[in-house]
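Extended Data, panel c. Modelled sequence:
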Amino acid sequence: MSNALVAKYGEARLPRYTSYPTAPTFSAAVGPEDYAAGLAALSPSDPVSLYLHIPFCRAMCWYCGCHTSVTRQDGPVADYLDILAEEIELVSQAAGNGLGVKNVHFGGGTPTIIRPDAFAALMKKLRSAFRFEAGSSVAIEIDPRTLTAEMVAALGENGVDRASLGVQSFDPAVQHAINRIQTFEQTRAAVEGLRANGTESINFDLIYGLPHQTVASCLETVKMAVELRPERLAVFGYAHVPSFKKHQRLIDEAVLPDAPQRNAQAEAIAEALVEAGYVQIGLDHFALPHDQLAVAAASGTLRRNFQGYTTDDCETLIGLGASSIGRLPGGYVQNEVPLGRYGERIASGILPTAKGYRLSDEDKLRAKVIERLMCDFQVDIAGLCETAGYNHAFLTERNERLEQLLRDGVATLSEGRLSVSGDARFMVRAVASAFDAYFGAPGRTHSKAA
């Protein structure tokens, strides 16, 4: 794929398509009453997934794009957990039907900032408010720099079987430039401790496009990472949005890789991981061949949600905590982002929904098309449209962006089946955007496609 096409499509602001429509389309037209009605309509026979947001860290990493706050004390975290427990109760009461839980994901921030005894209490609260299915899975995001042996033990005792460790880069120069000093030894100790306490699947997060990063330093990070043989790796491009995340202004833009350099880094990382025995999954994930993610990709059952590529097949995701996003059969809901406002809503006995989106039948169709593209790099548009009661010409004809992509060889369309060209797979987000009815709307801000 030529540099001209990389520049033409890769410099556009594109969503990551972990949902459709994406969060910038949400509005205050959807509120607590709508969420309560959606919860009450859920069937107890359909298990759900839970996402709990823990918006605290011990230090701010300058590349971070998450909603999080820095605290050196345990008090603010403990206060937040009290409020979170109240929200769990409100949601459970609104659902009122003994919802079964299949998956739990703790995200952040740094969820393992929670004290071990407090984590055990939180898990007990979840198990009392919801009915955990047999074989349910509990995942957590971890900062190896602050992980204690006591917390590792608590994770094992409370059923955590999957963990995602932030690594980003092992290059000291890069670590210094992003304010995240993390040694290989700290990462190895975390991996060994987790595995000894029952964690069956470990994921590493790596990032390319960071300040001072080169292809050579990326490859050295990969070499060190695969020594620890995580079951999965997620490889993301750094999203530099200093207008949105003001702490990113501390990063020197002069030493950020340009688009061709970012592309070279991404390709080098992918080639090295495949050579090390990992299967490339979708746009940016890698897994060992026996891992459930690789099995799902091979069978065409891979899914995509707010955590990226997943095997989670639940249609409902209940978001808990400030800024968390939930997905119901009828649409999306997002909690209040400011901690104070979030706490005020719950103290008043009100679900803390700030905004959301009601899905139309057309939205659901477009969401399926985009998800299959993101997961499989191809989609049977004709088949999906027929099932939904639409003619596929509705999505493909007079679609100027799609026609441009087809002319440039980024994708091919034959008998209603669209495929992303093999050497253009890193541009799948550009192809997906051709089916996004809101793409290019004023006020939307997303990361660069590379």
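Residues 443-450 have pLDDT under 50 and may be disordered. This feature is highlighted in the accompanying rendering.
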